[in-house]
Design brief:
about 260 residues, alpha+beta, 10 strands, globular
Amino acid sequence: MYGSYRPRRRWLRWFLVWAGGTLAVAVIGLVIEAAVSPGTGQPQSPGSAFPVSPAASARSGPAPGTVGGGSPALSGPVQVVQGRELVNGVYLGFPHSTAGAVSAADYVVGEVFSTLDPDRAAAVMRLAAAPSYASAPQQAAQGAASDREDLGLAASGPVPAGYSLLVQPEQYQTRSVRADSVTVLLLCDFTTTQPGTGTQTQIAVIPVRMVWAQADWEVASFGAGDDASLAAEPFGSQAASLGWQELLPEGSASVG
């Protein structure tokens, strides 16, 4: 069951959609700063300074069922694969295929959006971002630090017991599929845990623009646009009607 708690994630504000008792949509421009009301006595929600890159200000892709250039979008369950090499704790070397791009996007979102360690966030983006996205490591570190501060933690240092942040991609769609670029939309469970409020889970729709560069899939931008209408509880009938397809975890049995 999804709660009504609505985190203020400033670096996700272009494309996060939360599900409460009824669906609530939050799409806020980068030029608007999310205000945090002092002195309310209520636990503050996670926030972040990690903004969407300028390239993401346009719609992430055509409507469901079509892609740029007329190429068919990837459809059906996708078996997530792991990068073939581990570099400084970050998996790289995903297959040069649309499924490889989906796997790379799944991995990067799970690693960068979930961590409360600024150094880890920067390390992942230093290796996973395309050369055109040069500001990604600094933005990722700032985002993790901001998340910590909004949870009432110091901007750096060990995370105390009882605090965690987890973004778990569950389903996917693809847009603008080409040989060397694809926009991957991820339908994610967004879970926060902290003393006093316990665990709260919401829904996030996260588009990621992937490009084939330096013999690997790399993040060109975290997308934005008119994707709010695609929010749905993962694996439900609404998600199926909206075109969401299953991400099969690495090592799980394939669907025939």
